[in-house]
Write a structure and sequence with these properties.
By secondary structure, this protein is an alpha/beta fold. The chain has a domain of 106 residues: Dihydrofolate Reductase, subunit A, CATH 3.40.430.10. The chain has five helices and ten strands. The strands form two sheets. The chain has an eight-stranded mixed β-sheet, sandwiched between helices. Strands 2-8 form a two-stranded antiparallel ribbon. α1 packs parallel to α3 and α2 crosses α3. The protein is globular. The relative contact order is 0.26.
Length: 188
């Protein structure tokens, strides 16, 4: 059975973006890219909300082809171009693009069905609105939270009131030179 794995940057006080969607507090480095690469090797589906998909699709299809592309850019671009992308978006539903499927309704049921199919895992990078929907339905199997050394004070919180209690087990932690702490939890 496939697992749904969430990768998310978050501030110490639980925000994933600033009030207008800015992510200027995020520290990303090669160590983190190694974690991401390990997960993408084990995934054949990428799950995104519309806003995150727009950012990803604007950058990753050609990132590996650019002069001076990093190892991560080359590898992630190749992965992005080879996997199925599921986009939760009512506004893009009905759009057609190779290896991309847009779902606007019954998102939770679609993910439940995807998890039952044979294959590798489903990985979700960012997509805080969709992450909240998946948490509400208790569909996330693993949480990889990259806690950045900043107190935002406001913005878009990852965890909101009204979520069900989800019991987790800490599997691993790592501290990066940037001061980011990675917390890897699995659902009990």
């Amino acid at each position: 059975m496939r697992k749904l794995i969430l990768f998310m940057h978050v501030s110490i006080d639980g925000y994933v973006t600033g009030p207008t969607g800015q992510m200027d507090f995020v520290h990303a480095d090669e160590q983190m890219f190694e974690y991401a690469g390990q997960q993408t090797e084990q995934a054949d589906i990428a799950l995104y909300g519309r806003v995150t998909y727009d950012m990803m699709d604007d950058y990753w299809p050609n990132a590996g082809d650019k002069p001076g592309a990093s190892k991560h850019d080359i590898e992630h671009s190749a992965w992005y171009n080879s996997v199925e992308k599921i986009i939760a978006s009512r506004s893009l539903a009905g759009t057609s693009k190779p290896l991309t499927r847009f779902i606007g309704d019954h998102i939770e049921q679609e993910i439940i069905e995807l998890k039952k199919l044979p294959g590798k895992n489903i990985v979700m990078f960012g997509s805080p609105g969709l992450a909240k929907t998946m948490m509400q339905a208790n569909l996330i199997d693993e949480y990889w939270l990259f806690v950045n050394p900043v107190l935002r004070g406001d913005g878009n919180p990852l965890f909101k009131s009204g979520l069900p209690q989800i019991n987790l087990e800490l599997k691993n932690t790592d501290t990066f030179d940037s001061g980011v702490v990675m917390l890897h939890y699995i659902r009990k």
